[in-house]
């Protein structure tokens, strides 16, 4: 399946997870784009694009129907959809820039063209 959301960004097709953990399904919806669902109610929307900084970024939004995703959900989504060896960031915007379309959704971004933040480790830890 060639996802609609990635079709315009050919470089991103290879970033779409091809092998999913047990219980996960891939969906391609013309309204939403490429999204995934787990057997326990977690939903993930995957997209990738060139952003205003000129760099290529992966974006995943993920939600649960009745609560915010947990830390374990966040780690699982990051590992499956961004990768274990890529840096991901979660942005907490200024109040004036905040938009909320679904109260139980979180977002992660990952820059394909380098790490967008400095290395914050001190003594081997963050």
Question: Would you write up a description of this structure?
Answer:
It is built from 2 helices and 5 strands. With 126 residues, the chain is of the alpha+beta class. The chain has a 5-stranded antiparallel sheet. Helix content is 13%, strand content 26%. The protein is globular, with a radius of gyration of 15 Å. The relative contact order is 0.17. Strand 3 (43-50) and strand 4 (56-63) form a beta hairpin.
Distance between the termini: 39 Å
Helix content, binned percent: 10-25%
- How confident overall, as mean pLDDT? 86
Largest sheet: 5 strands, antiparallel
Q: What is the strand arrangement across the widest sheet?
A: 1-2-3-4-5
Anisotropy-based shape: globular
Describe the structure concisely for a colleague.
This protein is α+β, with helices and mostly antiparallel strands and 126 residues long.
List keywords for this structure.
single chain; 126 residues; alpha+beta; 5-stranded antiparallel β-sheet; 2 helices; 26% strand; globular; disordered N terminus
SSE diagram, text form:
Elements: H1 4-7, E1 25-29, E2 33-37, E3 43-50, E4 56-63, H2 71-82, E5 105-111
Antiparallel strand pairs: 1-2, 2-3, 3-4, 4-5
